[in-house]
From TrEMBL:
Compositional bias per record (Polar residues), positions renumbered to this chain: 241-253
Coarse class of the protein's main subcellular location: membrane
Gene3D superfamilies referenced in this protein's UniProt entry, alphabetically: 2.60.120.200
Organism: Thyridium curvatum
Chain coiled-coil ranges: 354-388
Protein known as: L-type lectin-like domain-containing protein
Domain of life of the source: Eukaryota
Membrane topology reported for the UniProt record: Single-pass type I membrane protein
Disordered: region residues: 241-295
């Protein structure tokens, strides 16, 4: 049997060279157009808990609201992580007043919903696993710290600041965009990065399987609003589980299972919380080939028509799987574009609403002008009233002063009478003095 279409072979060769990381759907949310199915308030494969039930929107989960304060919220995976090597992406955003308080905790813990619940690193007791804490620690505007516990240390009774094994400064509040926290576990290294910048890493840490992912948040009296847009877990090979039915499977069983189920499309994740497909032909050091189970073979090894038919059947089936993946990717991208179009329409509507408010500026200017005219009229009336009152007071005081002067002038004694009294008294004294001298001179003198 001969294959007449060389374009199919070229497509197969191009697809077989693609490297990808595989999305683990049951451990992830936020990679599609909606976090919760339309008409529901449940995140598939995750449980929600807290002192106040977190609000689930189309593209985010609000763990702690803007009001009230002292609220705890958590979202926990219902499935365990059964891969040795994996990558976890968490997109979050924290908005707060100038002096807001609270913390965000990312967990990979054993029995997380029961052992940790909605606690933070400061209120949790004994837990087994990893905790990444994002809070206002120190005077750096924010810090990301890593903590490990084997289940023996009671963090509630410890000084937490001295127990971290790694940290980096990160000002996370009021950025106006989601922040992307990336946790990577490989065979020889554990690393944490934020917004594509390295935070800390260690080659002495290897986390075991069987733990659950979770995100918790706690707010203070002056609360932080903590929003989680996505929690996405990826692995390089879906058949590399360390627990479950796939652990003891043979290579043939894995190949048959892969032929029955199409592979998960390679995906990369933007900060908006929506999934995007990588263009075919891209390369990455952490990617894995689609055709790892269908290696190329020389034509001489196929010695029978049955083997040739089986080889062609397997490869055509693989091509069909890839084409189906491409079609699903295009359909999903269309949904994403439609969602973004709706978001743009809503933003445009809000902008039109704001512009309509600007039309009221003319009315406001007219009102201000009328108020200015009224103030001028009031000022003029007050000035006239004060002027009339001043004139009235002046005329009244002037008339009263004239009347008082005439009264005083009429009641005062004349100077002629005073002069007459003075001169008369002097004349009387002189006459009395002359009479006294004469009488004394006429009297007889007496001698002893």
């Amino acid at each position: 049997m001969r294959l007449q279409s060389p374009s199919v072979w070229s497509l197969l060769a191009g697809l077989s060279a693609v490297q990808a990381q595989y999305l683990v759907n049951e451990l992830s949310f936020g990679f599609g157009p909606r976090i919760a199915p339309e008409g529901t308030t449940h995140v598939p494969n995750f449980s929600i808990q807290g002192t106040r039930t977190p609000e689930i929107l189309a593209n985010k989960v609000i763990l702690t609201p803007v009001s009230p304060g002292n609220v705890r919220g958590a979202v926990w995976g219902e499935r365990t992580l059964d891969y040795r090597e994996w990558v976890a992406d968490i997109d979050f955003r924290v908005n707060s007043p100038d002096r807001g308080g609270g913390n965000l905790n990312v967990w990979l813990a054993k029995d997380g919903p029961s052992a940790v619940g909605s606690a933070s690193i400061y209120t949790v007791g004994r837990f087994e696993g990893l905790a990444l804490v994002i809070d206002q620690s120190g005077d750096h505007g924010g810090m990301i710290r890593g903590f490990l516990n084997d289940g023996h240390t009671d963090y509630k009774s410890q000084q937490v600041d001295g127990l971290s094994f790694g940290h980096c400064n990160y000002a996370y509040r009021n950025l106006g965009r989601p922040s992307q926290l990336k946790i990577t576990q490989t065979a020889d290294k554990f690393s944490v990065s934020v917004d594509s910048y390295p935070c800390f890493d260690s080659d002495a840490i290897t986390l075991p399987t069987g733990y659950r992912f979770g995100v918790t948040a706690a707010s203070a009296d002056n609360p932080d609003s903590v929003e989680v847009f996505k929690l996405v877990v990826m692995t390089q090979a879906l058949d590399a589980q360390q627990a479950g039915s796939g652990h003891g499977s043979t290579h043939n069983n894995q190949q048959q299972q892969q032929q029955r189920q199409p592979p998960v499309p390679p995906m990369r994740f933007s900060r908006s919380g929506q999934s995007e497909h990588q263009p075919h032909g891209g390369s990455s050091e952490d990617d894995e080939s689609y055709e790892a189970d269908l290696p190329d073979e020389e034509a001489g090894h196929i010695t029978s028509s049955k083997a040739q038919f089986a080889d062609l059947h397997n490869r055509l089936q693989s091509v069909n799987h890839h084409l189906s993946t491409i079609f699903r990717s295009v359909a999903q991208q269309g949904q994403i574009d439609e969602t973004r179009h709706e978001e743009n329409q809503r933003a445009l509507g809000e902008l039109k609403g704001l512009l309509s408010k600007l039309d009221r500026i003319g009315d406001l200017e007219q009102r201000i002008a009328g108020l200015e005219r009224d103030l001028r009229a009031v000022r003029t009336d007050v000035a006239n009233t004060m002027r009339n009152a001043e004139h009235s007071i002046k005329s009244h005081v002037s008339d009263h002063h004239s009347t008082l002067a005439e009264t005083v002038r009429g009641a005062a004694p004349g100077h002629g009478r005073l002069i007459f009294v003075i001169l008369g008294s002097q004349v009387l004294l002189a006459v009395a003095f002359v009479v006294y001298k004469r009488r004394r001179a006429a009297s007889p003198k007496k001698y002893l």
